[in-house]
Amino acid sequence: MSKPDVLIVGAGPTGLVLALWLTAQGIPVRIIDKKSEPGSTSRALAVQARTLELYRQLDLADAVVAAGTRNPAVNLWIGGKRRVHVTFGQIGGELTPYPYVLIYPQDMHERLLAERLATMGVSVERETELTSFTQEGDHIIAQLRRANGDEKTCEACFLAGCDGAGSLVRHLLGTGFEGGTYDQTFYVADVAAHGRAVNGEVHVAFERSDFVALFSYGEGGRARLVGAIRDERESAETLTFEDIGHRAIESLGLTIDKVNWFSTYRVHHRVASHYRTGRAFLVGDAAHVHSPVGGQGMNTGIGDAINLAWKLAAVLKRKAPESLLDSYEAERLPFARRLVATTDRVFSFVTTEGPIADFIRMNIVPAIAGLGSEVGGVRRFLFRTVSQLGISYPHSPLSAGRAGDIKGGDRMPWVRWAGGDNFAALGAIAWQVHVYGEARGELSDWCRKSKVPLNDYPWRPEHADAGLERDAAYLVRPDGYVGLADSGGRASSISGYFAERGLSA
Fold first, then answer.
1. Closest CA to 368 of 92, 85, 84, 91
2. In a shared domain, residues 34 and 134
3. Quick check: keyword Oxidoreductase in the entry (predicted)?
4. pLDDT class of 11 with cuts at 50, 70, 90
5. Are 31 and 164 found together in one domain?
């Protein structure tokens, strides 16, 4: 094949999304994976609202939503009694077009992404393994090996390691991967079940020394169960579904009709010391792994891929200096560290054993959770956190200014009105300017001459509700985050932003 601009190692969701976004921007890619086919089982289930918003930019969201199962609410059960019930639509309906958790198992998700990539003319090269690579000035040279032993050389401008927690790319770079492994063994089971909790919602149940989370998807009462294995007396590899504790499962009133598959695993919490070394990048699980609390792992990897994709495209098209690529690590590494710290605390709370921990889980947590579920601000904060709508880059070199409640580095807030919304414009995957009210004539002239799309929306009360300022200019990045918020709506502010960073649209 012709020389790719980017060699992507690993065809999980992260690698596939990176390939999709680069291909959509006209960047030649090559994506390889040492496995012969996508996995048939998976632990990653949840597709969060922010991921779906980004998928909408490639007209992919509708297909993913149609294939998955919307879980519109979460329930907390303590000792067989439902203590908290929160509907996502009540707290997220004004924040995103996707106010729910979409349950779409990773194996199915991968197949859909690979099929979409194939329609764009790129196929995954399976049974093809990276064995080594070197960086040679303005390109990398990678050694690849096929299953039959044939070895080939691939030359590319950049290399992206999307090859999971055991990343060979990270190992070859010598990048640190600090953290550790939790003592507890977890299980995941794909089951067909019936009972009161098989109602299309998320359920988390605590019993003394036991807990389980249930996620519904598909037809016929199909669901995934995730829990911890207590009092492990034999190796995890030999355990079966019958060996695990069933108190929490029974407290949900579940009857398991069939176990389709069952797997155990250990949970790691690690973050790479660097995401970029020269022309090589770490993306997704190759850069960070953490507990499954909140369904953040796969979504974080997808967010990494999209953050990196538009920056690579800008550099390869000579619309930005290579220093732009440093902002990938500057933005995504601090977020990964915060995420690991947060999920670590929650994970430790969930899994700590002993009478004191049981008392807190069974008595104190229900009271706090019940109170929090009634407070609108708390509910919105939790939804924004879990859905990843709250991710922002306030300290990024690409973030500047403030207008209304919106600062540079914030996600552009979603605003809907009769007949449309402001996210429809983001499908361009390009720099663009948003004005809510009336754009200055000089700004309109500059956007036209600079070929930067100007989206000028008549002022509505909904804009004020979203924290936007009337007549201000918001320079929106290709990934939907605000680069510059300028209260004065001035063309000079926008042009100065591009000039200071060596960028062009």
1. 84
2. yes
3. yes
4. very high
5. yes
CA dihedral 402, 403, 409, 412 (to 10 degrees): 180
CA distances from 229 to 3, 236, 253, 266, 330 (A): 49, 9, 20, 10, 38
User: What average pLDDT does this structure show over 242-270?
Assistant: 89
Q: What is the CATH number of the domain that holds 443?
A: 3.40.30.120
Residue carrying structure tokens 């004539």: 441
CA 238 to chain CA centroid, nearest Å: 33
- 173 within domain boundaries: yes
Confidence of residue 375 (pLDDT cuts 50, 70, 90): very low
Q: By the 8 A CB rule, do 266 and 244 touch?
A: no
DSSP β-bridge partners for residue 228: 186
Burial 208-238 (b: 16+ CB within 10 A, else e): ebbbbbbbbbbeebbbbbbbbbeeeeeeeee
Strands in 151-156's sheet, in edge-to-edge order, are: 128-136, 139-146, 151-156
Closest CA to 46 of 388, 425, 407: 388
Tokens linked to 387: 């859905």
Question: Which amino acid, 111?
Answer: R
Question: Is the residue at 410 inside a domain?
Answer: yes
The reply to whether 262 falls in a domain is no
- Overall pTM surpassing 0.85 (yes/no): yes
Which of 46, 51, 45 is CA-nearest to residue 96?
51
Whether 159 and 302 share a structural domain: yes
Q: Cα angle vertex 484, ends 457, 336, to 5°?
A: 115
Residue pLDDT, tens place only, 380-405: 777 888 899 999 999 999 999 999 99
Question: How far are the Cα atoms of 196, 432, 460, 475 from residue 81, in angstroms, in the given order?
Answer: 12, 50, 45, 49
pLDDT tens-digit series, residues 64-94: 999 999 988 889 898 888 888 888 877 788 9
The whole-angstrom separation of Cα 377 and Cα 91 is 9
Q: Supply the DSSP string of 310-326, one letter for each residue.
A: HHHHHHHTTSS-GGGGH
Instruction: Choose one of 299, 319, 342: the last residue of a domain.
Output: 342
Phi, psi (degrees; rounded to nearest 5) at 327: -70, -15
Q: Which amino acid is at 472?
A: A
Average pLDDT, the chain: 90
CA distance 409 to 398: 7
Closest to 295 (Cα-Cα) out of 410, 228, 213, 200: 213
CA dihedral 361, 366, 372, 375 (to 10 degrees): 180
Cα–chain-centroid distance for residue 281?
A: 17
